[in-house]
Structure formats: C-alpha cells, structure tokens
Design brief:
about 210 residues, globular
Length: about 210
C-alpha cells in the first residue's frame, strides 16, 4: 500500500495517532470522525488499510481487531443539524477542526497524522495544531499512514452501522448521497426523518 515509512520511524516519535472521517458529503446521516493511537506494525498486522479498499465484511473484521490492539480508539458523531450550521456559513473545514480538537483530547499521542479535508494540507494542519496545541501532520491521502487507515475504518464502520439502523426503520434509501436517485426520491417523498437530513445539502444540490 506504500505506507510512508520515513514518517513512521523517526526516533523522537514514540506514540502516533491517526485521524480520519466518514460521511463528509452525504445528504443523509451524520459525519463521523475517528482517532486511533497505536503501533504501526501491530496495526498493519491486523490488516488496516484505507477503508474504501475493504469490503463491508472485511471492515467489520479489521475494526474488531483494531479495538483489541490499539492503545486508544475513539470517535465523535456530528449530527446533520450541526453540519448544516457550519456549512451554511461555508465552514465545513472549521467543523472538522473543532470536533477533531475535542477528539484528540481523549487519545494522547506525540504526533497525529490527519487525512486533510483541505486541498492545502499544511493550512489545515496548522489550523488544527493551533486549535489543539498538538503536533499535527496533515496529509492528502493520509490513509498511507496505518493509524489514519485504522481511523478511516473505525469512522466508516460506525457511520455504516448508524445508517443501517436508519434503513431498518425507513427502508433502503440507497447510498445516502445526493448523486443517488434512490436517496433523492426518499428525501423528496419525506420518507427520511428531517433530523437525519442535511438541509443545507438539499439547497446546494436542489433536492
């Protein structure tokens, strides 16, 4: 997978954390941000990789192993109305900084690698470092770092479980993204509870 070993073997970095999110762009459901702190080799040994490269079943299996071997795992669920509050002001990156800062306080590490939502990762990393007082390395394609890959799996599994619970109540509304006609149809027909919808997305994509 091409993990950047030079980033992981510096002797002064004794504890490494990784941060990633799932659900930044859907019309339905929350944004989930996760942090994982642990040993790179151990995490690689249980099969961590970018969550998008794993089947749902494989993600669940690796998720369970990450919970067993990581030094710290935590996540935060950001509900749609909170996402709306930030995006209505064009502050989606600021949302991730605010909630990631809260999350990092729960899992101590010497440095955190973060999958950057900003096209300029150094800008995002500097802002998050300023907000937390912690050493942050923001990267594009951050899942190359095992801790970030593990966090991507945690965030994805948690969000998928929440979406599955919603589907059990209202039916299969598809992917939850505004590009999915099935999702759009369910939303237009009022079949998805209002509190589960990002209304700012409805306006943006004219749903």
């Amino acid at each position: 997978m091409g993990f950047p070993q030079d980033l992981l073997s510096r002797p002064y970095l004794t504890v490494i954390g990784g941060v990633d999110e799932a659900g930044r762009g859907p019309l339905v459901g929350p944004l989930v941000i996760a942090v994982v702190v642990g040993d790179s080799d151990v995490l690689l040994g249980v099969g961590v990789r970018d969550s998008k490269a794993l089947s749902p079943g494989a993600r669940e299996r690796v998720f369970a192993r990450v919970l067993e071997v990581a030094e710290c795992v935590n996540y935060i669920v950001v509900e749609p109305h909170i996402v709306d509050m930030y995006t209505s002001k064009g502050l989606l990156n600021a949302l991730e900084i605010d909630y990631t800062a809260k999350l990092l306080a729960t899992c101590p590490a010497d440095v955190y690698y973060v999958d950057s939502p900003d096209v300029k990762p150094e800008r995002y990393g500097s802002a998050l470092s300023m907000a937390t007082g912690k050493r942050i390395v923001a990267l594009n394609k951050g899942e190359r770092v095992p801790q970030v890959a593990a966090a991507s799996i945690v965030a994805k599994v948690v969000r998928d479980r929440l979406i599955d619970l919603l589907k059990r109540e209202v039916g299969d509304f598809g992917s939850g993204y505004p590009s999915d006609p099935r999702t759009v149809e369910f939303v237009k027909r009022g079949l998805v509870p209002s509190e589960c919808i990002r209304h700012s997305w409805k306006v943006r994509f004219k749903v």
